[in-house]
Amino acid sequence: MLLGAHVSSTGGIDTAVDRAEALRLQSIQIFSQSTRMWRQTNHTPEAIARFRERRAETGLGAAVIHATYLINLAATDDAVYAKSLKALSSTVGVGTAIGADGVVFHVGSHLGRGLEAAMHQIVPGLQVVLGERDPDGPWLLLENSAGHQGTIGVTVEELALIIDELGRPERVGICLDTCHLFASGIDITTPDGVDALLDEVDSRIGIDRLRCLHVNDSKEPLGSNRDRHDSMGKGLMGKGLHTFLAHPAFQALPAILETPGPDGHGPNALELKRLKRLAKG
Q1: If both were cysteines, with which of 145, 172, 193, 199 could 187 make a disulfide (CB 3.0 to 4.6 Å apart)?
Q2: For residue 48, which phi and psi values (nearest 5 degrees)?
Q3: In terms of DSSP bridges, do strands 229-230 and 217-218 run parallel, antiparallel, or are they unpaired?
Q4: What is the CATH number of domain 2-280?
């Protein structure tokens, strides 16, 4: 398992690799633009080149970009929908430029209409993004959701339906978030819960399309549908996360912390040690 964390790219996208090296990470996740504004960041050719160089120098095992949270491919507002497509396509372009392994994104919210009513927007939109993607570009990874306020992807079935409707294209897969799984009612602290999850992923999507993990504890109880991340060992899953992390199916994947950390500024070295201990048991 490639243990890592979401790190800041403040000061240039290449500085994320420097921070990864300082924390001795094996994988990283970054934002390539603000999570609160639609405007894309202008990454300089020098910063992009240095990202690639520094990744090679440090031997970083995996690098993914998380697209902005503003994206909603099921938006009923035409302007928001158009901005969502542009933001996702732009993020994939940055991912291609820096040699990222994947772009993780939230499909959005159906706003109470149900997934079926929004499929006529989601699928054509993703087809546009895929049509603009370089054939050797990053994997496009749909992330599962906790289910609050109509978020899409709360079940494996929903993620599978979108991928199937796209025609199961190459380099399209999923990212699973442990907090979201727990919040959606899947008890990944038990062997039976993890096995049932993986059986469904394999049968409906294909285990080969599972390309990334977000490792977060949960502040809210099982089945709450509330997306509230907690730090390693501090939340309601606690040591039970070892059951999930130790499963053989996950051992080659990037496992990325997205926790608030002790000071609210993200994971630190101490929390990474906790992650390593949990992974080893």
Answers
A1: 193
A2: -65, -45
A3: antiparallel
A4: 3.20.20.150
Token pair belonging to 34: 């603000």
Q: Give the pair of three-digit tokens for residue 184.
A: 């959606």
Give me the tens of pLDDT residue by residue for the chain, a chain 281 residues long.
999 999 999 999 999 999 999 999 999 999 999 998 999 999 999 999 999 999 999 999 999 999 999 999 999 999 999 999 999 999 999 999 999 999 999 999 999 999 999 999 999 999 999 999 999 999 999 999 999 989 999 999 999 999 999 999 999 999 999 999 999 999 999 999 999 999 999 999 999 999 999 999 999 999 999 999 999 989 999 999 999 999 999 999 999 999 988 777 788 898 999 999 999 87
Asked if 25 and 272 count as a contact pair (C-beta separation under 8 A), the reply is yes
**Is the Cβ–Cβ distance between 270 and 262 less than 8 Å?**
yes
Q: Which residues contact 101 (CB under 8 A, 6 or more apart)?
A: 62, 63, 64, 138, 139, 211, 212, 254
Q: Is 264 exposed, middle or buried (0-12, 13-18, 19+ CB in 10 A)?
A: exposed
Q: Supply φ then ψ for residue 102, to 5 degrees.
A: -160, 160
DSSP label of 76: S
Q: Are 18 and 41 in contact (CB under 8 A)?
A: no
